[in-house]
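A protein record in our archive is deliberately plain, so that people and models can read it alike. The record that follows is passed on verbatim for readers who wish to inspect the format.
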Amino acid sequence: MSKAEILAELSKLSPQDRGEILEQLWRLEEAAGPTEREKTLLDEAQASYDANPSAGAPWSEVQARLRRRG
């Protein structure tokens, strides 16, 4: 099945099925780890946080925001 076919079929799925697919995609992304570009962004974010810790947010809040974007 091609990517275009998969994308076309997503809207036909139930919210529960889409949620399961989203969770599986998150697991795959987490297992793959960050790309070099993402590592650079994480390093920059860490440096920014180290300079001003009160401007940061707990990971649980950040992760929840990212998952809502889905």
The mean pLDDT is 93. The helical segments are 3-10, 15-32, 36-51, 59-69. Residues 1-33 form one domain.
